[in-house]
Amino acid sequence: MALKLACEFLCKGGWFITKVFRSRDYQPLLWIFQQFFQKVQATKPQASRNESAEIFVVCQGYQAPDKIDSKFFDPKYAFKDVEVPTKSVSELVSKKKPKAEGYSEGDTTLYHRFTLMDFLKAPNPVDFLSKANEITLGDGELENHSSTTEELRQCCRDIRVLGRKELRALLNWRTKLRRFLAKKLKEQAKELDINLSSGEEEESREEEKKEKMEAKAAAAEEAKEQEEVELALAEMKAEELAELKRKKKKILKEQRKQRERVELKMDLPGVSIADDGDTSMFSLRSIHRTPLLNELSRGDMASADALLEISPGDDDICVSDHDEEDDVSLASDLDPEELLEIEARQRKLEREQR
């Protein structure tokens, strides 16, 4: 009913989500969903208890057909069990007179006579008896078998007049004869094996030994390859676990630092002022080459200006304005001799600029 309501109101491409309880009708219901939607997925969220039979079905992309058969929404048709009819012995006994329908296709005879071997080789003995009128025994070992009684001989002469009891007796007789033939064939095969020559036996033994040796060698190689594959998989798994542990440790360390900064009122909850854990006022991470660092220590600021032009907006390098002279920032980190050298270098640059 929920699906019927959704098909009435949904636009093309719409979604339909429903909860169902798994039973024998679960698979037919999924098949019906797939006729109306492009993608059908079943999921069980963590909020649902494991022992519960409930499951959620998500249907995406409603196809919006122009015409819908009403049988899709009728449980009698949707969940109908299809059973293949099988014939039994009781069906062979006709209760009513059959309607005259003429001859079957390709069969123009009214009386069908079969041999006993045809009856034993028939794949479906019930159908065979429904078509046969007489079974001829013939002169042989099967006719003189202990299970072949005079009553069964009389039943084989006219099968159409037999009742349920006689038909069951014929089926049991067939089973006994088939077992007798199977046993006889096994004995004949055993006698043929005994009559093999000694040379053939030795050859067969040698071939068996070779096959066993080859099988053992192949099994050893396969076991070795499997062991190598398992070892490689174990190493890969160990590396993945180690990498996951390192990442987890790094994340926990960052979270601990963030909590400490929040407790010390250096940051607000959810807002971090620090940039990737660097809490210093000045950062030289962008200067990753020794020559550039040496030029800066000598007072050559041209490289720093070029670096700022390449990466604008980077807050790692702070350059003071020309109007505001801030000699204290350099004097606090340099020796007096280095400071004099830097001042001389700056005066020389100013003269070149003029």
From TrEMBL:
SUPFAM superfamilies: S-adenosyl-L-methionine-dependent methyltransferases (SSF53335)
Record key words, sorted: Methyltransferase, rRNA processing, S-adenosyl-L-methionine, Transferase
Basic and acidic residues bias locations: 206-219
Organism field: Oxylabes madagascariensis (white-throated Oxylabes)
InterPro entries the record matches: RNA_methyltr_RlmE, RNA_MeTrfase_FtsJ_dom, rRNA_MeTfrase_Spb1_DUF3381, SAM-dependent_MTases_sf
GO terms assigned for molecular function: rRNA (guanine) methyltransferase activity; rRNA (uridine-2'-O-)-methyltransferase activity
Domain Ribosomal RNA methyltransferase FtsJ as annotated: residue spans: 2-62
GO biological process, one term: maturation of LSU-rRNA from tricistronic rRNA transcript (SSU-rRNA, 5.8S rRNA, LSU-rRNA)
Ranges where the record places region Disordered: 196-219, 315-337
Pfam families, A to Z: DUF3381, FtsJ
Domain DUF3381: 94-261
Name of the molecule in the record: SPB1 protein
Any one cellular-component term (Gene Ontology): nucleolus
